[in-house]
Amino acid sequence: MSIQPHEQRVIDEQKDLEKKLNALLEFLQKGQPSFIDDKNWALLNDQYDAMNWYYTILGSRIELFEVNQ
């Protein structure tokens, strides 16, 4: 069972995304700072949701790699 180069890229991408996702979540959990307006705060929350969805999709793809080996 060896991982193909394109599969490793997806795994690496998910790991990188996880770090960014965790950092954004930590920031959001602190509450809205005064230097970020409501529109940007809402967009940051939307960004978190989109990143989380993307992370989930990458995870599903990785599961398929494991099934197909």
What is the gist of this entry?
With 69 residues, the chain is mostly helical. The protein is built from two helices and no strands.
- The beta-strand count equals 0
**Helicity level, as a percent range?**
over 70%
Relative strand content: under 5%
Low-confidence stretches: none
Radius of gyration: 16 Å
DSSP helix count? 2
Major sheet size, sense and barrel closure: none
Cα shape: elongated
Mean pLDDT, to the nearest integer, reads 95
Structural class: mainly alpha
Distance between the termini: 6 Å
SSE topology string: HH
Describe the protein:
- With 69 residues, the chain is mainly α.
- It is 80% helix and 0% strand.
- The protein is built from 2 helices and no strands.
- Helix 1 runs antiparallel to helix 2 (38-67).
- The model has no long low-confidence stretch (mean pLDDT 95).
